[in-house]
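From the pipeline queue, job 12 of 40. The input is one protein chain; the requested action is below.

Action: predict structure.
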Amino acid sequence: MTTVIRLGALALGLTCAALGCYGAFEFAYRLEGGLTYLVLAAPVIAATAALIPPIAEATWRSGQIPKALLWWAVLLPAGAVVFFSSAERVHGATAGAEAERGALRGAASRAEATLTRAEAELGEGASRRQQGSRPEAVRSRVQNQAGD
């Protein structure tokens, strides 16, 4: 039973590490616009941070306690880099979606204003045509023309 749990935990950990590496690569690639050393370093940092706990545990079990404590101390900044880079990716995705929604709201409000103006102009034109076709309006026009 413990073998199954350990294998499941290992599979879950490897999957999470692979997703973190892929996310770091994709974000850096999109940010840089091409393949640079920074784009290659992003997944390497994520993979290295994922490998620190097993290394630290192995050194602890082998009795090299000072070295294990150093590995655990190294995990803190490496984990912080991985965490904050993933938080930045999430923030970038959220901010991009919010900006897109704001742009769509602005376009919709401009379209509504244009539609309101067009309806008002159409209403004025229709009322002028109706006034111009009334018999009194025709008589007054004829009288005005005759008086000139």
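Job complete. The helical segments are 2-32, 37-61, 65-132, 135-147.
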